[in-house]
Amino acid sequence: MGERHSHGPQTFTYDCSGLGKGFDDCDAKAAAQCGKQGYDVVSRTGDSVNNEMKRTMVVSCRERDCLPIQCQLHEFALAMSRRSA
Where are the domains of the chain? Predict the structure, then answer.
């Protein structure tokens, strides 16, 4: 599973590097981790290092059955994390 960040909403980092892999692999990992509530992609990075593609994706799991104010706070925290990246 992904590496969990310690602050804010449930945010995870996935590594989907290597030959024959792609961001679809990261998407599958995020879907399994976050479940039916889904997730938002915070960032995707891809770099070629020594002829190997390094891919990383950061996602934020959506809140389950959140009340409107909780959903708004989650969206605000996600937007702020994107601004600081």
Answer: 3-84
Taking the C-alpha atoms of residue 11 and residue 61, their distance in angstroms, rounded to an integer, is 6
Task: Give dist(CA 29, CA 63) in Å, integer.
Answer: 17
Phi and psi (nearest 5°) for 61? -70, 140
3-state secondary structure of 13: strand
- The answer to whether residues 14 and 45 touch, using CB atoms and an 8 Å cutoff, is no
Euclidean distance between CA atoms 2 and 12, whole angstroms: 5
Please list, in sequence order, all residues whose beta carbon lies within 8 angstroms of the beta carbon of residue 15, skipping any fewer than 6 positions away: 26, 54, 55, 56
pLDDT tens series, the chain, 85 aa: 555 554 556 889 999 998 888 899 999 999 999 888 889 999 999 888 777 889 999 999 887 666 566 666 767 777 777 666 5
> Is the Cα torsion angle 37, 33, 78, 66 positive or negative in sign?
positive
